[in-house]
Amino acid sequence: MEFKIEKKLSAKGGSASGGKNSLGRAGVLITAHGIINTPAFVPVGTKASVKALTSEQVIDTGAEVILANTYHLYLQPGDELIASVGGIHKFMNWDGPMMTDSGGFQVFSLGAAYGKEISKITKITEITDPSLMIPERFDDSNAPRLAKIGQDGVSFKSHLDGSIHYITPEKSIQIQHNLGADIIFAFDECTSPTEDIKYQEEALERTHRWAERSLIEHNKLNKENKIYLFGIIQGGRDKNLRKKSAQAISSMNFDGFGIGGSFAKKDMSTAVKWVNEILPENKPRHLLGIGEPEDLFMGIENGVDLFDCVAPTRNARNGTLYIKNGKINIMNAKYKDDFNAVDQDCGCYVCSPRHGGVSYTRAYLSHLFHGKEMLAATLASIHNLYFIVNLVKKIRQSILDDNFFEFKKEFLSKYLK
Ligand SMILES: [Zn+2]
């Protein structure tokens, strides 16, 4: 893995979580499809598409890398079809760095979220030893059981057509090699935070065994040595489990690391810190599924290099826009005749003045949303992605310029007021 740290976060001005051993850093990650300046925000293109945006529009937001979703692409159009055209870059017309997640999160969590529309799995034939199965997953949320976890892998029911699939660590890695992203993830079990400690411990052991198996399969398939595999640290909110997981996963020869699982907002920073204090400094770290501005500062301060999150684009499609003073809902009546830019300080395509000093206005976006025009999603997504991608770029620059803590204070004092 080619990962160079350009500058470490100077602890000067750091408070409680900074201290003398500040973990933050700015670096450069080199992939077969180009470089990623870190810290970086990674837009999510779930089904090989950052919703409502062309590849050029994604590039214009400043994004350097996209994360696509293994679970969705395996089900549709199928990883073999994507492999037949030369991989995901060619398939979606994106030349830059790509990542795919392992599919684990969707198998365990998103599967349940889709539950209300489809029926339960009644019989699992793929797992031969029923005593190895963990019964009644997801029952805490009254969701139908869509996934069954065995020691070897997970059976789940497709949310598209109800077909039954069985994913093992080896299968996840095979699918990801077919998709052909530059950075892929080991197959892990993402547990619900409501699980008891005994279950969390069992799941963690399973995740560690699956990590080893993912690595073995990856090394078999990675003939050209162009694809990087990240191991995933789990352990929920428990300090001992998080540290145990960081130790176990960092002892394996991964190219980088993902920090997975669900966090309560208030203790996310400590969980990230526990992990990053243990992970080797010379390998990149990706905090999975996190991307609100205050969390980006927290993660970067605590040594995170990469973030992905659907929030900027999902919020955009709902009319929720990020501006320097916080989030606004453009559907609100007060924007109906507001002929200002969405955010006057924003340099995105939507907010940049042209045509004699005029940009797309709040009033125009309000109109598009109320009229259910497709352009609403495109313009809002361009603005939100630019806002978040460039916030992380500015944070990166503040590390290089030795004024991270000043920038953090200045930004958050307006954003969170
Ligand atoms: Zn903008």
Structure description:
Substrate binds at residues 101-105, 188, 234, 261. Keywords: Glycosyltransferase, Metal-binding, Queuosine biosynthesis, Transferase, tRNA processing, Zinc. Its EC number is 2.4.2.29. The chain has 2 domains: 2-309, TIM Barrel (Alpha-Beta Barrel), CATH 3.20.20; 317-415, no CATH class. Mean pLDDT is 87; it is low at 111-144. The chain is built from 14 helices and 16 strands. With 417 residues, the protein is an alpha/beta fold. The protein has helices at 55-60, 70-75, 79-84, 88-92, 104-113, 169-179, 197-221, 239-250, 268-278, 293-301, 311-317, 362-370, 374-400, 404-415, and strands at 2-8, 25-31, 34-38, 40-45, 66-68, 98-100, 147-149, 154-157, 164-167, 183-185, 228-233, 256-259, 285-287, 306-309, 320-323, 326-329. The two termini are 41 Å apart. α13 packs antiparallel against α14 (404-415). Zinc ion (ZN) is lined by residues 342-343, 346, 348, 350-351, 383, 386. Zinc ion binds at residues 342-343, 346, 348, 350-351, 383, 386.
